[in-house]
Specification:
By secondary structure, this protein is α+β, with helices and mostly antiparallel strands. Helix content is about 60%, strand content about 10%. It folds into 3 domains: about 120 residues, no CATH class; about 190 residues; about 270 residues, no CATH class. The longest helix has about 30 residues.
């Protein structure tokens, strides 16, 4: 037996579990401390090669364990016989290099003394978990580097993360990740592993699938590498094979957890395919009127034709998950065709992008997009959720721009689009900030859609308020929403017309239906938006009013309680606005109900400021039915009052006492939460 055996230094690694903890505890808003930055540079080779650095068993490593001492580069280990036996056992089961198995076993037992004397099944189970944890922490370290780089924005001299992220992909991380993902999709259950451990192995494998796709998504999202036409076709072929069941992704989904992981992997690959179409860049070219051949595009005309040949083989009717990809491809083609000059490739003109749209719609592609946003696994997901929402935002915006989508009340698909937009923006302050930034051309089509909804206010209130509520995430977006509503909005209402004239005039005062106390003065002109009956049209009047005031006026009317949807969205909007922005809270309380009525000469009653809105909410709470729906609305109302109480204690307290709200709540039967929901 040799006293010392030297092995390849690349077999050594410092614990990625420890490194990940250090990274997660570091600040995202500043550069890394020097010692942590050095650790990242020292592990660069591991990050580039990723999991391929964990080597398979080989005879040289096995023989090296016969020595008393192992020398691994600058590291030295004493070989203990009982650990050697466990390492060889682990090596044969995990298919891991014998020396790396020994390093792994020694570390695990060092940090868990009880394991040394454990029974074999328990020991193996623990080793399997620890081994996959180490592998996944390596991938999470890479993901953390990319997320940190994105968070810090453009590259700068002191941005260690951005430099490291770019260097990783410059050194070939992209191709290695794709190869590794392909191998994961094709790997089969290790024969040496006990059948009882299959569920654990399946779950850990799917977690690795997800982490690899996380890293690839972030790389394309932040333009750390460019997806070529050839690479896009590779991803497309993988996606098609997954949907067709040619890979193990579906076969490993044997529990609720693995089903979610399998579903999430498919969503990630779909979003990578949509993101790498670079719709944002194409939209920019359309916005700037730059011909396709003069713009910055990663795909040649030949690439596009070959990519179309692949997309044409997808059948969205048989695989509904392919619907969004087919629709995104149709949008890409349409935008591309608008950029082509007359003398360019006419072969693309022969592609029927409308048939792709029809197929995608009939297969329920928009419903699948909404399902993605509502998926439970994404709610607790620690990956690039904002990036996923951003990709869907760009996709939907490009779709609206391409096919001139307008939200009509009787059309199911546009209603789905509104639901999707609300899910995208709600909870994502960065996307809301972009929306209200007029320089953001990506949000332009969605802003146009918002203006179309506003043109029908208050005839259609729910859709407008629902979208605005989602767009008010954060202090500044909330201010933008309030200003949008509080400025003088046009008033629309149903009006009897004669003939086909597009301009009408109110011969007498017109009561705005559904808003008692709001009138259009006689002599006001209006424009017909659309005809809704034989002699009835929706008219946009040349008369303006504060949208916030109109919403409060709605809430003040008892008859309005019959429309629970409008009450709910209005309370939700008010709750979010006053929660995000204290200034708005004061502004809402300062709205006086006398000002608007004075404008049309219908009321002269003065009320004290900071009381009217409080009285409205108090009266609303008192009149709500005692059921689950009423309890939810009551909760929102009380939340608004509690925020206003902080802003103006004396006025709000006096108004609530005057409304006898507290006495009412004391006499209200207790609502208990049972297994079937709320009950009295």
């Amino acid at each position: 037996m040799a006293d010392i055996s030297s092995v390849d230094a690349s077999l050594w690694w410092d614990s990625f579990t420890v490194l990940l903890t250090e990274l997660e505890n570091s600040s995202l808003t500043s550069d890394l401390p020097p010692n942590l930055a050095k650790k990242l540079k020292d592990n660069h080779a591991w990050f580039v090669d990723t999991l391929s650095r964990f080597k398979p068993p080989n005879q040289s490593s096995k023989e090296a364990l016969n020595s008393k001492t192992l020398k691994i580069g600058s590291h030295q280990l004493s070989v203990q016989p009982h650990l050697k036996d466990k390492a060889l056992q682990i090596s044969s089961i995990l298919l891991l290099d014998e020396v790396q198995s020994y390093i792994f076993v020694e570390r695990s037992i060092k940090h868990n003394d009880a394991v040394a004397d454990s029974m074999a099944p328990e020991f193996l189970h623990m080793m399997l978990i620890q081994y996959y944890k180490e592998r996944q922490c390596l991938l999470k370290c890479i993901r953390w580097i990319l997320m940190h780089a994105i968070h810090n924005g453009p590259v700068s001299e002191d941005n260690t993360m951005k430099e490291e992220a770019r260097k990783l992909f410059h050194d070939g991380l992209e191709s290695k990740l794709i190869l590794f993902f392909d191998n994961l999709l094709s790997c089969s259950y290790p024969e040496q592993m006990d059948v009882e451990l299959f569920t654990l192995w399946a779950e850990e494998t799917l977690i690795e699938d997800n982490l690899v796709l996380d890293i690839l998504f972030l790389a394309y999202y932040d333009s750390l590498c460019t997806c070529s036409g050839e690479m896009w076709k590779k991803f497309g072929a993988l996606y098609k094979g997954i949907l067709a069941g040619d890979y193990n992704l579906g076969k490993l989904a044997i529990t609720a957890e693995t089903q979610q992981l399998s579903y999430h992997a498919k969503v990630q690959l779909l979003l990578i395919l949509i993101e790498t179409l670079n719709l944002e860049n194409v939209l920019q070219m359309v916005h700037d009127e730059v011909p396709y051949r003069k713009g910055k595009s990663t795909f040649s005309m030949t690439d596009v034709q070959e990519m179309d040949a692949l997309v044409s083989t997808f059948n969205a009717f048989e695989m509904n998950e392919a619907g969004p990809l087919v629709l995104a491809w149709a949008v890409f083609l349409y935008l591309l065709l608008t950029l082509l000059e007359k003398d360019e490739n006419n072969d693309l003109m022969e592609i029927d992008h409308i048939s792709y749209v029809r197929q995608a719609f009939e297969a329920g592609s928009l419903g699948y997009c909404l399902e993605i946003l509502e998926c439970d696994i994404l709610k607790d997901y620690d990956g690039p959720m904002c990036g996923y929402r951003s990709v869907l935002r760009t996709f939907i915006s490009a779709f609206i721009a391409s096919y001139e989508i307008n939200l009509q009340p009787d059309d199911g698909n546009p209603t789905l689009i509104l639901d999707i937009l609300c899910k995208i923006y709600r909870g994502e302050e960065s996307l809301c900030i972009q929306f209200w930034d007029k320089e953001s051309f990506i949000d332009g089509p969605i802003r146009s859609l918002l203006c179309n909804l506003e043109s029908e206010f208050p005839f259609r209130t729910v859709e407008l308020v629902q979208l605005l509520s989602s767009l008010g995430e954060g202090t500044w977006p909330a201010e933008c929403v309030y200003n949008f509503l509080n400025r003088s909005l046009g008033i629309s209402s149903l009006f009897e017309i004669n003939g086909d004239s597009q301009i009408v005039e109110a011969q007498q005062v017109v009561q705005v239906p559904g808003v008692q106390g709001l009138f259009i003065p006689a002599g006001t002109r209006g424009r017909v938006l659309r005809v809704v009956g034989e002699n009835t049209a929706l008219v946009r009047w040349e008369y303006t009013s504060s949208g916030i005031f109109v919403l409060l006026l709605h809430l003040a009317q008892e008859m309005y309680l019959d429309n629970k949807d409008e009450v709910a969205v209005t309370l939700d909007l008010l709750s979010r606005l006053v929660s995000f922005n204290t200034g708005i809270c004061f502004a809402v309380m300062d709205i006086s109900n006398s000002l608007q009525f004075d404008a049309v000469g219908l009321m002269n009653e003065q009320v004290e400021k900071r009381v009217w809105v409080v009285e409205i909410i108090c009266n609303l709470i008192k009149k709500l039915p005692l059921n689950s729906g009423g309890a939810a609305l009551m909760s929102m109302g009380i939340k608004i009052l509690s925020i206003m109480l902080i802003c103006s204690p004396s006025n709000v307290a006096a108004a609530t006492l005057n409304a006898n709200l507290f006495d009412m709540t004391l006499q209200t039967p207790v609502l208990n939460v049972g297994s079937n929901g709320l009950s009295r």
